[in-house]
Design goal:
This protein is an alpha/beta fold and 243 residues long. It has ten helices and five strands, in the order βββαβαβαααααααα. The chain has a five-stranded mixed beta sheet with strand order 3-2-1-4-5. Helix 2 links the parallel strand 4 and strand 5.
Length: 243
């Protein structure tokens, strides 16, 4: 079992023997095509790869391994971290985490690592680009308020970024019409949900799994309210400003 702790630049890896659960080797390779090829050469074809989801950094590794015919499995972050805390000492390093992830894969039945399609990846990158543009607009508008005598100088930059946001919105709206992204169109049926919000929700929900609606609703920005509550509890909530 191969455990991989993924970062932007490197992959800390540990290969555990399935019978003894002891490390056969530990390596650190670059998170690049050269590093992935090195792992493929040194890892038995029957050894599953265990990774936590870290966006594009882990997606690229998982895709390279899957294309080479390897079994790639997903370690859900919260569950994996709880497992690592239960088996590790106070020390925490990337090498220890890699060995812990391999042990986690030996002890638990893990699901296959979900890979995004090219269209899903394009949508995610458009949403990420739009987010960056929106943040830049907010920062420049804040500067305009702070520096009124320089506001006119900053205005062309604000207008240009706002035009780029509209262009990104048009690209997103065109992309989500594809049959592969039908879930986005369904989300738009909810009152007040437009293409960008629907695309963002669909993208994030496809990257995470919730066992129940209770944690899912707050994560998406909603609040579930209990059907039955005592009068005293509601009075306390009003007293502290919860309602």
């Amino acid at each position: 079992m191969l455990g991989i702790d993924v970062s932007k630049d490197t992959l800390s890896c540990a290969l555990l023997d399935g019978a003894t659960r002891r490390p056969l080797w530990r390596k650190e390779v670059k998170n690049s095509s050269a590093g992935w090829k090195q792992l493929l050469r040194h890892t038995p074809e029957t050894a599953p790869w265990i990774l936590e989801p870290t966006g594009r950094y882990s997606q690229n590794v998982a895709r390279a391994a899957r294309e080479a015919g390897r079994d790639v499995r997903l370690a859900q972050p919260k569950k994996a971290q709880l497992f690592l805390k239960s088996v590790q000492s106070r020390a925490k390093t990337d090498k220890l985490d890699a060995a812990g992830l391999a042990l986690y894969g030996l002890c638990c039945e893990l699901k296959p690592y979900p890979l995004k399609s090219a269209m899903q990846e394009e949508l995610d990158q458009l949403l990420c680009a739009r987010k960056g543009l929106s943040q830049s607009v907010c920062e420049l508008q804040a500067r305009q308020r702070e520096l009124p005598r320089a506001a006119a100088t900053l205005e062309p930059a604000v207008l240009a970024l706002q035009q780029q946001i509209k262009a990104a919105d048009r690209q997103i709206a065109a992309l989500i019409k594809a049959p592969e992204l039908a879930a986005v169109m369904e989300l738009q049926k909810v009152p007040g949900v437009g293409p960008v919000i629907a695309a963002t929700l669909a993208s994030r929900l496809s990257a995470r799994s919730f066992g129940h609606s209770d944690p899912g609703a707050p994560w998406a920005g909603g609040v579930l309210r209990a059907g039955r509550e005592s009068a005293s509890k509601r009075q306390k909530e009003r007293a502290v400003g919860f309602e």
